[in-house]
Each structure stands twice: as C-alpha cells, then as structure tokens.
Amino acid sequence: MRIIGPDYLVFGVDDLEGAKTYLQDFGLKPVQLDATGWLYEALDGTGVVIRHRDDPRLPAPLPTKNMLRQQVFGVEDAATLDVIEAEMSKDRRVNRLADGAIEFQDVLGFELRFQITTRRELNMPAEKINAPGAPAQRGPNELGVWDGMPALPRSLSHVVLFVPDIDKMVEFYTRRLGFVITDILTGAGPFLRPAANDDHHTHFFIRTPAYMQGCEHLAFHMGGPTELMVAGDRFTRKGYQSFWGPGRHKFGSNWFWYFNSPLGVHFEYDADMDKHDDAWVAREAPNGPEASQMFLLQWREKWAPGGGPEGGPKG
Amino acid sequence: MALLPLCHRDEIPDGAARGFLPLPEALRRVIVVRRGQRLDAYMDSCPHYTGGTPMAWRRDAYLNGDGTHLACHAHCALFDIDTGDCVSGPCLGRKLTRVTLTEDQVGYLSVPAHVAGCAARKE
C-alpha cells in the first residue's frame, strides 16, 4: 500500500480573513480553489485548505469544536487506491469521487480522503554547513545567512491528532492502512509513518478525553534549522504567538517551533527529521519534558554586548 | 496595595480584547475585554496545562471569530467572558484567573502588582 502522507488538511474556520492572513504570513502561498475555498500551499504543493465553517462544500465537523474537517492523503498510484477501497469496503461506506479519489471515515470518525498525490517534486539543496574534519558544504565566498534570505515551508510534514481511543486508532492505521510505528511516548501515544514515506513520522496520536478529539498541530518541513529560526523569528516579529520552541525533539530528531493559530491548532516549523526503514525497532520513553526534547530555547529581542559599561568612562 | 498601570479604558475598542504586560519582565499578559462600559480582565494563561500558556494567535487576538468568547488558540478552548469558565475544549471544568481591575476617576486602569509575577495556574 503506497501511501506517501498528507497532501493537505481541510479546516472549517470561524475567522476566514484572520486565517488567510495567518497562513500567508506563515509562508504559504494562496491558491483560490473556487468561490469560497483557498489552498495555502508549501513549495511542493502540499498545504492547508480553508473554508468558512458554514461552507456546504466542507465535510461534516467533528463532534468537538476542533476545526479539522478532513485529512487528504497522497498515494503513489491508482492500484493503492483500489487496495484501500477494497479493504475499507469490508466494514464501512467508501465514496469513489469523479476524479478517482476515495473518501471514508476512519474508526473514530475522522474524515479521510485518499488521492494520487498532487505534490510536486522539489529539487533544492538542504541547508549546508561547514565543520572541521568534514568536506566543506559551502565553498569559498558562499554565505550561510543574509538579510532577506528565503525561509519558506517546503512540504507538509505531519499531523498530530488528539484521539479518545489509541488502541482502535493504532490498529486501524497499522493493520488496515499499513502504517508503521517508529517510536512510542508512553502515556501520549505512537509516532507513525506510512509505507511509502521514510520520514520518522507523518502522524502522532495523543491520548485524550473524547471532548478533545481533533487536530493538535500540523507541521511543515523547512530547509534546515537556520531557515526554521529565520522563519520563526520573522513570524514572531509580525506579532504571532509562540507556543513551544524553538528546540529539537528527541524522537525524530527534528527541530521544532510551534505557534498558536486562528485555526485552533498549532502550526509548527520543523527541520531535519530522521529517516527510517523497516529495519528500525521502535523505542519507547515516558512522555514528559525530558523525552520530548534535546533542548528548548525561547525567542528574545535582538541584543548585543557593547564595549565598556553604559554611562561609564568614555574612550 | 501596589498597583501597576495598564492603559486608559478608551484604548480598548468596544467589543474587543487587548493584552498588556503589567511590567516588561512579567511572565504573562493581562487580557482586558470591553463590552460597552463593562470591562473584564483575566490572566493570559490557558488552564489546559500546569503553569498556563498564552492564548492569542496574534497580538491582542484573544476572541473567537464571532467575538462571543475568549478563546485559547492553542487548542480551541472557549471561555465565557463574564465568568472565565471554560465552556468547550481541553480545559472543560476549569476557568481563567480573573484579575481585579482598578479604574481611576478619569478612566485609567490598573492591576494589583502581584500579577506581574504570576503565571496564573499553579498546581
């Protein structure tokens, strides 16, 4: 089953204009889909679709106030869609759409859509670093940072869900859809990746009461830690509210920086995530501050030391 | 009781909320919501997690899209503006920490000095 990962997530928002401003300032490019819907896309075409919550084009809402309406997964080929349709049709209704995509609800009522992926192949370098003992990645006169350097989200990386029944969700995504568990934070839940994606995770499930069911956050891959810091610094300076970070996670090794949003979920910049194959054996650690991060920093206004003490002797 | 000045009541538009740091080094802002002549103030500290977390999605963006509730834009929690009670979301059954507002004769608002060192939810 060649599932790649989320192509985009669909939200029904109560503040459409606020959400549009937010997504654009986050670094996503608006593409108008129709009279009432917008896709905000990363460089590879993955992203977030928003509509007003009363828009009849939206899938049904969750029973909670969470604004997530649908996860749209990209797959490699039509054969995968056929396999998923056959598997899901055993015990639930599956809609086959005119464009070949299929839609159904997962075991806890999250709306899903699977389609042949719309993501574009990216061809651009990762952040390059120089270190003694290793060949230089940046040659002579090639600069690491400059004012106005690009720092745009490259690709929708992962989605984190609040789920009331972890066991059912894990069983459904692993046995029925072929996801693999890469690591587990005990007390929270597992990290998962689909078969056709070697990223440490495209999904993470967190155990919660039923009244919290929904999306906790979504994340976009950046070109490296410097791009992540530059994007987060620019976003903070525009008045947006940091929630957690910047820092670097342990499981997945990805750099992170989370922000509040008018979509009622966190938006995360992430960078430099681990890759895995089927030889990997999942680790397990108790959820908490120690397991969650290698280190955690906090933004502050730019500052620089000068020479002598302020107000001290001159010259 | 020592007081820290926030602003004049006219600096908060009717039907809107604003957040103020009572001191530059304060841990959390104080949110003031104005509806007509009525003012309500709470710590900018969602009770979902111990220690509380900031609630706006952008500076002063504390209300939900309809302007009917205070909202935490971390996880969609909605709070009654009159009481601070969480009516929906992760912290259902908990409430925002109310801050006593003092208004002088010409409309300048201030808050007790202790709120500057307060992250609101301890436990």
UniProtKB/TrEMBL annotation, chain A:
Boundaries of each VOC domain copy? 155-272
InterPro entries per the UniProt record, alphabetical: Glyas_Bleomycin-R_OHBP_Dase, Glyas_Fos-R_dOase_dom, VOC_core
Signal sequence residues: none
Show the Gene3D superfamilies listed in the entry.
2,3-Dihydroxybiphenyl 1,2-Dioxygenase, domain 1 (3.10.180.10)
What would be one Pfam family of this protein?
Answer: Glyoxalase
Protein name listed in UniProt:
Glyoxalase
**Which organism is this protein's natural source?**
Paracoccus aestuariivivens
UniProtKB/TrEMBL annotation, chain B:
Q: Which SUPFAM superfamilies match?
A: ISP domain
Name-wise, this protein is Rieske 2Fe-2S domain-containing protein
Which UniProt keyword terms apply here? 2Fe-2S, Iron, Iron-sulfur, Metal-binding
Note the superkingdom of the native organism. Bacteria
Q: Does the keyword Metal-binding apply?
A: yes
Keyword Iron: yes or no?
Answer: yes
Q: Can you name one GO molecular function term for this protein?
A: metal ion binding
Domain Rieske positions:
4-109
